[in-house]
Write a structure and sequence with these properties.
The chain is an alpha+beta fold and 365 residues long. It has two domains: 119 residues, 2-Layer Sandwich (Alpha-Beta Plaits); 224 residues, no CATH class. The strands form three sheets. Strands 5, 6, 7, 8, 9, 10, 13, 14 and 15 form a nine-stranded mixed sheet that branches. The protein has a four-stranded antiparallel sheet with strand order 2-3-1-4, covered by helices on one side. A hairpin with a 4-residue loop joins β6 and β7. The protein is globular and about 70 Å long. The structure holds fructose -6-phosphate and magnesium ion (2 copies). One magnesium ion (MG) binds next to loops. One magnesium ion binds next to loops.
Length: 365
């Protein structure tokens, strides 16, 4: 059997330029230099990118998922890039590195991770999605559409290879529990859970016929790790496609609707998820609206052929226009819900202080 390949996508915000809007080019250069020095020893290949203020490391290797050497390489890269960010006094330098020293695995230490290991097919198109100014539940609706909704993915209806459906691994991020749910049989059970994006997050998706991995997402919630607001989770998601998986166009299609996600301004507002090219992923209006980018590659014996900037396509112009219209409507709500998040979900709040101050003035009714 051929040696398996592992794809690791690890990301962190280690400093913004200007404010939280984008990334200084020197951080990308530094990350490229460090990953280059690990190529051929540890890595098969890599690509460094950005989405807003998040530094994105896409790596291929033969070490399997949750490998200590790979995670240490990513961690050390973020630490060195933090030094560059500090030297330029960039905004929030090192913001997502929640601990001082690396211990075995970046999980729970701040950076977001999505990894999958599989046997490379004769042709292996891979799609890497990255979002800024939102949280991991942002993938729930698009993943449901890609892997369970025949109105999005006609392959579920007319392609023998995926007609059997997919199995969803859903994480309850508040209770630290996970469950496998089979689709299409259990779609209603799936939806009662994943419609609640703050608590239930799709971690991985497997093809039911043979258990083959199809998609994986990052699910870390920085606020749950640190116990307080420390920045946005800004999740990533990888999807395989074609020949027994949804087609590239079926994976892209859900993003033609800019669904409303939490995470805009101070992690405390809902906003539309706008699909854009990498060069347009610099959210500056009210620190948003939230963005999603996608890089596509063909895998070639572990090497990454690409990338193609997948939302650099006029067929997403309407989604961008719709997102701007939704943004206008939501912004006019100012500090009111449903633009502002419910009290318990805001990442900034003055509620305890205000309640304390007004304590004596509250009367029974
Ligand atoms: C950061 C974000 C921003 C910040 C806001 C306030 O990812 O979404 O909206 O929350 O700019 O940032 P501070 O508190 O650092 O001034
Ligand atoms: Mg930031
Ligand atoms: Mg960010």
């Amino acid at each position: 059997m051929a040696e398996k390949i592992t794809v690791s996508h690890i990301k962190a915000d280690v400093g913004g330029y200007v404010g939280h809007s984008s990334m200084h080019p020197r951080l990308i250069l530094k990350a490229e230099e460090l990953l280059k020095s690990a190529k051929d020893t540890l890595l098969e290949d890599f690509h460094v990118s950005k989405c807003g203020d998040d530094l994105q490391l896409i790596m291929t290797h033969r070490k399997g998922v949750e490998n200590e050497e790979i995670h240490k390489l990513a961690w050390d890269t973020f630490v060195e890039c933090t030094e560059v960010a500090k030297s330029l006094k960039l905004y929030g330098a090192g913001q997502d590195l929640l601990v001082d020293t690396f211990s075995g695995n970046v999980k729970g230490m701040g950076p977001g991770v999505a990894e999958m290991e599989f046997e490379e097919r004769p042709s292996e198109p891979l799609l890497f999605f990255m979002a800024d100014k939102t949280s991991p539940g942002a993938w729930n609706m698009p993943l449901y559409k890609i892997f369970a909704d025949p109105f999005n993915t006609i392959g579920l209806v007319i392609d023998e290879k995926i007609h059997g459906g997919f199995r969803f691994e859903v994480h309850d991020v508040k209770e630290s529990k996970k469950i496998l749910i089979n689709c299409p049989e259990e779609v209603y059970d799936l939806l009662i859970l994943i419609g609640s994006v703050d608590r239930f997050v799709i971690k991985a998706i497997y093809r039911k016929s043979d258990g083959e991995i199809a998609s994986v997402s990052s699910t870390q919630k920085l606020a749950l790790i640190a116990g307080k607001y420390v920045g946005k989770d800004d999740p990533v998601m990888i999807s395989r496609s074609q020949s027994g998986f949804p087609a590239v166009g079926e994976v892209m299609e859900p993003f033609s609707f800019p669904h409303i996600v939490p995470g805009w301004m101070r992690g405390s507002h809902n906003g539309p998820l706008m699909p854009v090219s990498i060069k347009e992923a610099n959210p500056t209006r009210f620190d948003g609206p939230p963005r999603v980018v996608c890089l596509g590659f063909q895998l070639n014996n572990g090497k990454l052929v690409g990338p193609r900037d997948m939302f650099d396509d006029p067929s997403f112009d309407n989604a961008r226009k719709m997102a701007n219209d939704i943004a206008d409507i939501l912004r006019r709500h100012g500090p009111f819900e449903p633009h502002r998040l419910p009290l318990g979900e805001m990442e900034y709040t003055t509620l305890p202080a205000v309640m304390k101050k007004l304590e004596d003035r509250f009367e029974n009714i």
